[in-house]
């Protein structure tokens, strides 16, 4: 079909066809088989086993071709300004409306009795998870719900104050004085944070045989008041963990549709980015790129480890090591130590080790040493050239399937990405 298009549209389509072949050739790991001989055999074994390739080969290709060159990408600086992952909010529910004091009176029925209606209830404030909201940036510091309306004569009740909804992203944890109250992880999940005050009673309510003309009314109750902390924890199945400059963002770009900033200086990434890896059976696995961690991060060095809350929910970890550094295995040791400082046994989640920058000559020697030193599976890749990313994508799927079999049916299941 592309050939036909090339004929119809002339040189422009000829170029597209060449470009497609070039990218597809790279993607299926055809070049340099000697360098990736181990991984190449794994991939072909997987194909042989299943008969079809599990990976949607168009995903990396599509993301490469999809980008509109005229449309500038958001810089990390701009993203930082827009991405807010914690907020403190003061919530004040509406007060109840006051009850009315009035008496019925009409010609020939001068003393018709009390007819003051009750006041309406104050509005409540509800925090609601919404999959279309991506950050807490739009959350205001103070929310006040509508007060209930007062009752009136002729037994008219006051209108209830309407409830206020605060929409937060999926994965928002609501805390009060540092203690978690609720975890909003499903679309549409609600938490009634503060109750509106009850409406007051009108004098009709106090009518009795003893008192046929009560003048008593009650004011509405005050609405509840609370100060809560909202904390967003990015939800992804896999988390890319590594030292700065190890190529996490480049890798996320290579395997998913996300476009995090990539640069040759440390701490380029300041916020987590989530990318979706798509498979041919329409399964989607979310992979999060986390800012770089350095030795001593738990002592607040570098960017600290507060952002590790974002990988608390990741079901498996992908440690990205830069094989061009002198001792990549020590990076792994430091990373595990820092993770355990944040949450004990965090580093013992199902994991894979990604040996990145395999296109560089110095990386090849270190690969065998790394394999000898670690017990986990090591996947050599080059995020820059895209070599062997297919094996990584297949391994992510294996980890994901293992997670689904193990605990997927239980609670804490991560909702589908859309
Ligand atoms: N040669 C080579 N360079 C790479 C590869 N992957 C990434 N790089 C380069 O390494 C540098 C850092 O890449 P990033 O993807 O920004 O690294 P990062 O881990 O996200 O860094 P931080 O965001 O600072 O934590 C960039 O200059 C990339 O071009 C690779 O496979 N081979
Ligand atoms: Mg980065």
TrEMBL record:
Residues 81-235 form the Obg domain. GO terms for cellular component: mitochondrial inner membrane. GO terms for biological process: ribosome biogenesis. It is found in: Mitochondrion inner membrane. PROSITE patterns: G_OBG, OBG. Keywords: GTP-binding, Membrane, Mitochondrion, Mitochondrion inner membrane, Nucleotide-binding, Ribosome biogenesis. HAMAP family: GTPase_Obg. Belongs to the TRAFAC class OBG-HflX-like GTPase superfamily. OBG GTPase family. Associates with the mitochondrial ribosome large subunit; the association occurs in a GTP-dependent manner. Plays a role in the regulation of the mitochondrial ribosome assembly and of translational activity. Displays GTPase activity. Involved in the ribosome maturation process. This is Mitochondrial ribosome-associated GTPase 2. It comes from Betta splendens (Siamese fighting fish). The lineage of its organism: Eukaryota, Metazoa, Chordata, Craniata, Vertebrata.
């Amino acid at each position: 079909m592309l050939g036909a298009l090339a004929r119809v549209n002339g040189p422009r389509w000829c170029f597209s066809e060449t470009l497609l072949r070039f990218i597809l050739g790279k993607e299926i790991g055809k070049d340099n088989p000697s360098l990736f001989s181990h991984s190449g055999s794994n991939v072909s074994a997987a194909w042989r086993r299943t008969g079809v390739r599990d990976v949607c080969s168009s995903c990396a290709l599509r993301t490469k071709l999809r980008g509109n060159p005229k449309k500038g990408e958001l810089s990390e600086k701009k993203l930082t300004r827009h991405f807010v992952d914690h907020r403190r909010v003061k919530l004040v529910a509406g007060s109840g409306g006051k009850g009315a004091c009035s008496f019925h009176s009409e010609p020939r029925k001068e003393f018709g009795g009390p007819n003051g209606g009750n006041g309406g209830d104050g509005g409540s404030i509800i925090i609601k998870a919404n999959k279309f909201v991506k950050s807490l940036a739009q959350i205001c510091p103070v929310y006040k719900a509508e007060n209930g309306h007062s009752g009136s004569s002729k037994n008219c009740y006051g209108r209830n104050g309407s409830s206020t909804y605060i929409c937060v992203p999926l994965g928002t944890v609501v805390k009060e004085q540092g203690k978690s109250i609720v975890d909003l992880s499903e679309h549409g999940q609600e938490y009634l944070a503060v109750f509106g005050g009850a409406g007051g009673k009108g004098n009709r309510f106090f009518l009795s045989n003893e008192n046929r003309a009560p003048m008593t009314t009650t004011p509405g109750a005050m609405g509840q008041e609370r100060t809560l902390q909202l904390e967003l924890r990015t939800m992804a199945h896999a988390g890319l963990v590594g030292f700065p400059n190890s190529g996490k963002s480049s890798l996320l770009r290579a395997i998913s549709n996300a476009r995090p900033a990539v640069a040759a200086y440390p701490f380029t990434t300041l916020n987590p980015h989530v990318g979706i890896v798509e498979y041919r059976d329409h399964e989607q696995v979310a992979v999060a790129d986390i800012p770089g961690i350095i030795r001593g991060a738990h002592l607040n060095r570098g960017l600290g480890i507060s952002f590790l809350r974002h990988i608390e929910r990741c079901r498996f970890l992908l440690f990205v090591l830069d094989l061009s550094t002198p001792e990549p295995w020590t990076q792994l040791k430091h990373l595990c130590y820092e993770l355990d400082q944040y949450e004990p046994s965090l580093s013992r989640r199902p994991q894979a080790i990604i040996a990145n920058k395999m296109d560089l000559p110095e990386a090849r020697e270190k690969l065998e040493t790394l394999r000898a030193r670690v017990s986990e599976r090591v996947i050599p890749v080059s995020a820059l050239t895209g070599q062997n990313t297919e094996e990584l994508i297949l391994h992510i799927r294996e980890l994901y399937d293992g997670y689904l079999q193990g605990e997927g049916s239980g609670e804490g299941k991560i909702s589908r990405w859309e």
